[in-house]
Amino acid sequence: MAGRTSLPSSSVRVAHPLVLESEADIEAVVRAMRTVAVVGMKDGAEPSQPAFTVPRSLQARGVRVVPVNPKIAGAVVLGEPAYATLASVPSPFDLVCVFRRPEHVPAVADDVLALPPERRPAVVWMQSGIEHEEAAEKLAAAGIRVVMDRCLAVEAARFRPRV
What we know:
This protein is an alpha/beta fold. The strands form two sheets. It has a five-stranded parallel β-sheet, with helices on both faces. A two-stranded antiparallel ribbon has the order 3-4. The longest helix is centred in the middle third of the chain and has 11 residues, at about 50-60. The chain has helices at about 25-30, 50-60, 105-115, 135-140, 150-160, and strands at about 35-40, 65-70, 75, 80, 95-100, 125, 145. Helix 4 links the parallel strand 6 and strand 7 (about 145). It has five helices and seven strands. The termini are far apart. Helix 2 packs parallel to helix 5 (about 150-160) and helix 3 (about 105-115) runs parallel beside helix 4 (about 135-140). It has one domain: Rossmann fold, CATH 3.40.50.
């Protein structure tokens, strides 16, 4: 499968209570999210790209979306200023949605953990096709809930009404 880190058939997912897989846990995260920092968000130049359509869908459900991508930093995307890094986002966010290939996830995890504890998000969400067991373990060990390989827009459509 392209874009995924593969696990040997004898491996199992991270067994940590903060690595979320149950429907109830996913629903709770989706219902609670208010502000989402989207790492790897696109600017809409190609409006069908998931890194643009997912954030747009979240906005339609009342979620504030903060674009984080050094390639679009300084631009305004979906009515919000874009930032180069998570550390440069001035306002709080409760969830980080990751649109980066799996090999880049450890760096995103390091960026999250480099934030002062009071600025860290409650959840790091890796989009469909993105999983990284070691990064998930590291985040969970720091008390951050993790979701891997699920589309936030799909789950939001299931658990949040449009506004």
